[in-house]
Design a protein that fits this description.
The chain is of the alpha+beta class. The chain has two domains: 36-130, Alpha-Beta Plaits, CATH 3.30.70.260; 139-275. The chain is 44% helix and 19% strand. It has eight helices and eight strands; from the N terminus they run H-H-E-H-E-E-H-E-H-H-E-E-H-E-E-H. The strands form two sheets. It has a four-stranded antiparallel sheet with strand order 2-3-1-4. The longest helix has 26 residues, at 235-260. It starts with 16 loop residues before the first helix and ends in a 15-residue tail after the last helix. The relative contact order is 0.10. The model has no long low-confidence stretch (mean pLDDT 82).
C-alpha cells in the first residue's frame, strides 16, 4: 500500500482542542459547585409553621425582640415561605436562643402553631446559593438522625371501637325498653354478640340497630336457650377503623416530635399498618 510521506500524523493519545476545553469547563464547574462544602455550616434556629399558621412580620419581630432583650448576638435572620432561619456564630448562642425563642413563641402563639428547632444552615455566600450550589447532603446516620418504624396495634384499635359499640348498644336497647340477656359481649372471633330470651325482642332489636348502624353487618343466630344476633365490622368499616388508628398515631407522633424541637422531621404512613 502506498502512503503519502508528507502527511502529518497526529501523535498518539492526543485529542482535538475542543475536547480539552470541554474537560476544563466541567472541571471548573465541579470546583465551583464543591465550594459550599468548604464554607461549612452555621448553627441556626429554624422556626417552621404548623397547621394553619402563617409566617408573618409579627413573628419575625417577636424573634428579633426576644434575641435583643436576651442580648443574644446572631449573624443573620432569613425568612422565606417555609421557615425563618436565624444564624449564630457558635452553638452556645444557638442553645440560649432556642430556649428563649421557643418560650416566647409558645407564649405568644400557642404550643401548636410553630416549631422552633436547632439546625445547621449552609454558610456559603449568597452568590453561590443563588447558583444552586449547596453543600453535599450527608446521610441520616451521619447527621445524627434516626429512622424509626412503628407498627400500629390494629387489634387493639378494633377492640376499642367494638367496646364503644357495646356501650352504645346497651344505651339504645335500654331506651327502646328491649330486654336482653346481660352482658353484651364481644365475640373472640370478632364482632358483638347480643342475646335475648324472646324471639320478638331479638327481632325488634335486630331491625332497630341494623337501621341505626349501617357500618355494621348483622346476622341472627339461635342458641340452645336464647335468640341471638351478632354485629361485626364490614370491610369498609374495618378499613376506616385502621385508617383512623394510623391517622391518630401520626398526629400524636408529630406533636411529640415537634415538642422536642426536631428540624425537618418526616412522619408518614408506610403500608397499611406502619408509620
Amino acid at each position: 500500500m502506498l502512503t503519502n510521506p508528507m502527511a502529518v500524523q497526529r501523535p498518539i493519545n492526543t485529542y482535538p482542542v475542543w475536547k480539552y476545553i470541554l474537560v476544563m469547563m466541567v472541571f471548573l464547574l465541579g470546583i465551583l459547585y464543591a465550594l459550599p462544602n468548604l464554607y461549612g455550616e452555621d448553627p441556626s434556629l429554624q422556626i417552621s409553621p404548623q397547621r394553619d399558621a402563617q409566617l408573618t412580620s409579627d413573628i419575625e419581630n417577636t424573634i428579633v425582640s426576644v434575641l435583643d432583650d436576651s442580648k443574644i448576638a446572631y449573624k443573620a435572620l432569613e425568612r422565606d415561605d417555609k421557615a425563618i432561619v436565624v444564624r449564630f456564630d457558635d452553638t452556645d448562642s444557638q442553645l440560649s436562643a432556642h430556649f428563649a425563642v421557643d418560650r416566647a413563641v409558645r407564649d405568644a402563639y400557642g404550643n401548636d402553631s410553630f416549631t422552633v428547632a436547632m439546625n445547621l444552615a449552609p454558610a456559603a455566600p449568597d452568590w453561590l446559593r443563588n447558583l444552586g450550589a449547596d453543600p453535599m447532603k450527608l446521610g441520616l446516620d451521619l447527621r445524627g438522625g434516626i429512622y424509626f418504624l412503628m407498627e400500629v396495634d390494629m387489634n387493639t384499635a378494633i377492640d376499642k371501637r367494638e367496646d364503644t359499640f357495646v356501650s352504645e348498644f346497651k344505651d339504645e336497647l335500654r331506651e327502646q325498653k328491649l330486654r336482653y340477656i346481660r352482658p353484651i359481649t364481644r365475640d373472640p372471633k370478632g364482632g358483638i354478640e347480643v342475646r335475648f330470651r324472646e324471639e320478638e325482642d331479638r327481632d325488634k332489636a335486630y331491625d332497630f340497630l341494623r337501621g341505626r348502624y349501617q357500618e355494621l353487618t348483622f346476622e341472627t343466630e339461635d342458641g340452645s336457650d336464647s335468640y341471638d344476633f351478632r354485629a361485626y365490622f364490614n370491610q369498609a368499616q374495618l378499613k376506616s377503623v385502621r385508617d383512623e388508628a394510623v391517622r391518630q398515631n401520626i398526629t400524636t407522633l408529630r406533636n411529640r416530635v415537634n415538642q422536642l424541637g426536631v428540624a425537618e422531621p418526616v412522619i408518614q404512613r408506610q403500608g397499611a399498618e406502619r408509620i
